[in-house]
Amino acid sequence: LYDLMSLNVKYVKDNYGVINIHRKIKNYYHIYHTYPSIGDDLWNHPENYIQGKLLQGAKEFYIELVDYYGVDAIQIVTSSMENIVEVKNEMIREKFGITCDIKHSIFNKISKHELTGNTVLVDDHIDNVINHVEFNDANGIIFNYMDLDYIKERAVLIDGMHQKISYANDYETLLKMIH
Q: In percent, how much of the chain has pLDDT > 90?
């Protein structure tokens, strides 16, 4: 729902001179290990992190889910560095205008699948979706909102391996899968 990738692309271009990293990366861990200062300078620095924006259509998508299922049935599980948890909570509540259940998987401490339980996880990180499905025996949807090659390539590799994993790259498809 939040466009962290555009912030990553700008940071890496400004600090490392590398252009279009979103076409070269394998996942967020790859970004972190290839450009290690990004963790402290961007992901764990509240003032920098909140410079991003919601993905186009994210608020409308969220509102439709709330209208259909009710706010108590919706939870946002987000990956966070410890230093930005409270700022991120405020940002999410402000941008969506609705108070919902917000949970944080803490980088290198708590994984998303430990927080998601028997829900449908929608995530752009394939490993989060796979772990959610395998540990919770629940459904998951890989959401490739930026149409990134590495996500498409990995999604093709796991297609058929997990009947509980689906793939979407737009909100319309995503809503049909959830409903």
A: 52
